[in-house]
Amino acid sequence: MAEFKDFITWFKPKFWHTDIITSSDSKVLFNYKRFWLLSTFLRVSISVVPLIIFLIINLGFSRTALRNENYLRTVRLTSNARRTIAYFFEERLDALKFIIRENEFQRLNEPDKLSSILQHLKMGFGGFVDVGIIDNSGMQVNYAGPFDLAGRNYRDQDWFRKCFETGVYISDVFLGYRKLPHLIAAVKGPTRDGSDYILRATLDISRITQIVSSMDLSEKSEAFLCNQKGLLQTPSRYYGDVFKKISLPIPKYSPHSEVIETTDRENNSVFIGYAYIEKSPFILMLVKRNQELMKGWYSLRKEMIWLFVGCTMVALIAALSMSTFMVNKIYLADQNRLRAMDRLESTSRLASIGRLAAGIAHEINNPLAVINENAGLIKDLFALKKEYSDDPQLMELIDAVLESVERAGDITKELLGFARTFEPKIQPLQLNKVINEVVSFYRKEALYRNININIDIPEDIPVIHSDLGNLQQIFLNLINNAFQALDSGGRLDISVTRQGERYVVTSISDNGCGIPEAEQKKIFEPFYSTKGPTGGTGLGLYISFGLVQKLKGDISVKSKTGEGTTFTVRLPVTLEGVAPK
Amino acid sequence: MNILLVDDEEKFVSRLAERLIIRGFEADWATTCDEAIVKAEKKKFDIAVLDVKMPRMSGIDLKKKLEKISPEMKFIFVTGHGSEEDYNVGSKEASFYIIKPFRIEMLVEKVKQTLNV
Q1: N or C: at which end does chain B have fewer Cβ atoms within 10 angstroms?
Q2: Do A405 and B101 touch (CB under 8 A)?
Q3: CB-CB: which of B15, B18, B80 is closest to A362?
Q4: Which uninterrupted H or E stretch holds A184?
Q5: Mutation test of the interface with chain A: which of B31, B81, B85, B98, choosing the one with the most A Cβ atoms within 10 A?
Q6: What per-residue confidence (pLDDT) applies to B7?
Q7: What pTM does this model have?
Q8: For A403, nearest residue in chain B (alpha carbons)
Q9: Structure confidence at residue A310 (pLDDT)
Q10: Do A365 and B99 touch (CB under 8 A)?
């Protein structure tokens, strides 16, 4: 599960959730999510669309090719079977015709002769069950065969009439007197006195069934004969026994073998090869289930679809990773640029605030000096006269004025301190020493308030070239702030790490009250203070910011309300362009 | 010890002079450079406390003129401005550079230090 999450995270771009935070910011240049989606969509389309086209065309072609092949094969097979069956009937009819030509009616009327003929037919051709001679009144005058059919009258039977009309006749399969499915082949012949008679033979349909079933067909395909009314003449595996009506449409007459495509009663798509058997009422039907025929194609289609799915997955993964990679790069570059712009903006904002503050400060300093000297003179004069110097209220009043002037002066001086760019006095410094010195001012308070101070400065931190006074001021301000944020029993961590060859980073973390996110942007501005009216001037961080800038470093803050604050001061190991003194 | 105070703000410079006098110094004051030069020509001052920014002539220029009149004279600059330029020039040109407002005790101390008293 965790692996899957990692896998998803790998694809999920970094900006996926951040845009919710930054979307209200006018500085967001792109809708990265849309950009990413568009890029992914285009990449997937480029790779998948040709694949789909290829798949459709390929499957279409292969399907058509297979259908054509099946069509031809079915026509061929039907045609061959038709020839065989037609030949079967032709051969038997020819045999009967031969008997009529060779034997006169009188001779055929002899019982022994007919039995001998039946014997010859059975041996020579097979499929003959019995033979009979029927005169023009429909009476069977002679019969040879296993049944007792001599003397039967066939006058009312359909086949009898038709045979007299056409001379040659093959009947539908029917249940005769014997209740067995059989068919009759009959040939008309002349008697000596000019009237006609019929030589009738009963043919075993099992021979025809055998021919039909011996066709080389697959499992779900079958062949059968039906008559033109759609009644089965040979048994069928799927459409029922003999005499049942098939659920397929009767194909229209054609002198050749044909193929039609249709559906059967069970809604199976079927491929029917058919042929009308000449001189007979039979239609040979060869029914193949389409599903069976197209089996090869279906398995090809399955393989192709799997291949397509595989290729699509690969394309999708490639598109996702490429889009994610690309948009992430752009996003990160934009973020860096925005951060740089932010820094620049806040630096320049602070610089203008600095200039403004300095301007105000020295406009105020002159009137303050006037107040200071005038009040000072009053105090001096009071001190000279006993009646005034003994009045504590007067002295208190004048001291209050002087103190207020001094306080105001301190503020303006602090403001000016930031505005002025003192040339830093660069000297090699050990951060370890500088920090420990500053911390030593707070040891007593830490002990008193039970605050745990941890200093972690590895030995390999290089000596840096910087200004001692400025550094002390910076660390003093930051540690002072931390102490004010901490409750009793809190913890202050100070650590120094190297960042590449050129920088050292000092982190000052407390687990105090923290700074709300909205306030974090303002903390480096002058007069920003959370300490209330009794607290500081709100200039500590403002001055620290200016000093860090002066030392060519930067300062940043990370804070969470209720969890604590970390100030990070990054300083260069050497000040470029400022030679150590 | 003779102190010459020069500042364009009369209410400041006159009161300061008076307070120094109370503290036992000899002090005189001027609100313009011309007045200061006239006073310096008439009388010898040990030390001059000059405002850096004054109309018409800066404290730096005035210092150069006063040095010509009295080469022995020492200087302390005071200013309400804290610009970088002021600071850099002021701290090079004078013994001390004091930002207004200040306690008189501090000025007295700097004067004494400058004159090695």
Answers
A1: C
A2: yes
A3: B80
A4: strand A181-190
A5: B81
A6: 93
A7: 0.49
A8: B103
A9: 93
A10: yes
